[in-house]
Amino acid sequence: MGHDTRPRRFDSVSPAPADSAVIPRHVAIIMDGNGRWARARHLPRTEGHRQGVHATRTAVRFCAARGVQALTLFAFSSENWKRPSAEVNTLMSLFVSALEKELPELVQNNIRLRFIGEREAFSDKLKHRIHEAEAATRDNTGMELVIAVSYGGRWDITAAVRCLAVEVAEGRLDPASISVETLDRQLSTAGLPDPDLFIRTGGERRLSNFLLWQLAYTELYFCDVLWPDFDEDALQAAFEFFAGRERRFGRTGEQVSHERA
Ligand code: IPE
Ligand code: IPE
Ligand code: MG
């Protein structure tokens, strides 16, 4: 049977209990709007990406300070490879330099790093930095920081299904035993609770192939602020939006209030 032996760092993927519902356990962010931020200042798009690193640092510090257990950041989608090669190259160099620069603070703050996405197309330098950062933070027990680079939700699900198909073909997995949990354990986010709060900056109301499976019951927050301008106040507004939601997971509002009482 295809049991995953990786340790689960969080209890389960089931809804958080009511008393801890105010702070999201897992926050997932599409950091969008860097290009428009730069264009509005007559700067090259890449300058927006450089500025975006500051907003990323702010978001990591804010979430870690509030006791968020996992923060997933969409840094580069599987579709972003279609952008002009100069922009792609600048983004890849930015990932390398930001990782090098930020790693000491992440280590110091007990943050554990995980990269999700298809790594094959990365330069050796980036692959090395990713490996180094994951290794240096492997034993950390604080917030898990998940960076989605060259990531696509459809890629994630497809890769998980392929793993299960191999197990079935080799006689290690009975198709009748495949459940939601079986597939969940093969995704790149295995071991993390599903995101409670999704944030997309930059004004677009779409998922752009982010965590398609994992966002099934996530509270969705869209705001017009461009990513380089997304500061602590903007984060606070998103957390307040989350705190005001009633999460029903299919039940009635009466059932939920009864359970809380
Ligand atoms: C998000 O900002 C960063 C990446 C996709 C890498 P954009 O570059 O998409 O910025 P806009 O949407 O063009 O303003
Ligand atoms: C989504 O933003 C990907 C990231 C922020 C990394 P895009 O700017 O690429 O999304 P679309 O193409 O406008 O949907
Ligand atoms: Mg965009």
From TrEMBL:
One GO molecular function term? ditrans,polycis-undecaprenyl-diphosphate synthase [(2E,6E)-farnesyl-diphosphate specific] activity
Q: Name the Enzyme Commission number(s) assigned to this protein.
A: 2.5.1.31
Q: Name one Pfam family in it.
A: Prenyltransf
Q: Where does Mg(2+) bind?
A: D32, E219
A cellular component term, taken from the record's GO annotations = cytosol
Alphabetical UniProt keywords: Cell shape, Cell wall biogenesis/degradation, Magnesium, Metal-binding, Peptidoglycan synthesis, Transferase
| Domain of life of the native organism | Bacteria
* Cofactor(s) demanded: Mg(2+)
Keyword Magnesium (UniProt): yes
One Gene Ontology term of the biological-process aspect is:
cell wall organization
The UniProt catalytic activity note for this protein reads: 8 isopentenyl diphosphate + (2E,6E)-farnesyl diphosphate = di-trans,octa-cis-undecaprenyl diphosphate + 8 diphosphate
Name the active site residues.
D32, N80
Would I find Nucleotidyltransferase among this entry's keywords?
no
List positions binding substrate: 33-37, 45, 49, 77-79, 81, 83, 200, 206-208
Cofactor descriptive note? Binds 2 magnesium ions per subunit.
- Which family is this protein grouped under? Belongs to the UPP synthase family.
Cited function: Catalyzes the sequential condensation of isopentenyl diphosphate (IPP) with (2E,6E)-farnesyl diphosphate (E,E-FPP) to yield (2Z,6Z,10Z,14Z,18Z,22Z,26Z,30Z,34E,38E)-undecaprenyl diphosphate (di-trans,octa-cis-UPP). UPP is the precursor of glycosyl carrier lipid in the biosynthesis of bacterial cell wall polysaccharide components such as peptidoglycan and lipopolysaccharide.
State whether it acts alone or in a complex, and with which partners, per the record: Homodimer.
- List the NCBIfam families hit by this protein, alphabetically: PRK14830.1 (NF011405), uppS (TIGR00055)
What name is this protein filed under?
Answer: Ditrans,polycis-undecaprenyl-diphosphate synthase ((2E,6E)-farnesyl-diphosphate specific)
